[in-house]
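Just wondering, does anyone understand what follows?

——
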Amino acid sequence: MIASNSTNEVVTTLRQIIRAIDLQSKKLVKKYGLTLPQLILLKEIKENPEQPISKISKQVSLSQATVTSILNRLEKQGFAIRERGKEDKRKVYTYLTEKAETILKNKPQLLQDSFSREFEKLEEWEKNMILSALQRLSFMLNADDIESPAILTSGPMEASPAEVKSFLEDENNN
């Protein structure tokens, strides 16, 4: 089957978006040694210090297991430290190191920040039209059931065992 010009244009545009996200992610790693999810966690910890991991995970729309995994890497890299609560030893709090504070002082920009600024300038009907088209596209790509946080990043975000199982089952059925 030969794709129409409009189909090719949609696929080209999708690839441009994916490439923009990928390039932004690579810039962050190259310049700061951080992935986008790591940077988002550092920003959240800075903005809301002394909160338990469960609350951090809710704030950044990532599972607690994913946040724990990311925090493990941040600790190994020297960007964060975790300590048990003094009053409640069951709670673990995360603190930024001087290394993380230095990076955050440089105010690294997230791709979603510039996107959000531009998107908010649109008329309400334009926002609804874009959302509707993207939701339809997600459905057409069989991606509408995939849970995904509102983070523009490339690469794995630590899939849950259930998501991996579902993906593998879908692959085997196709």
Observations:
- The first helix runs from residue 5 to 32.
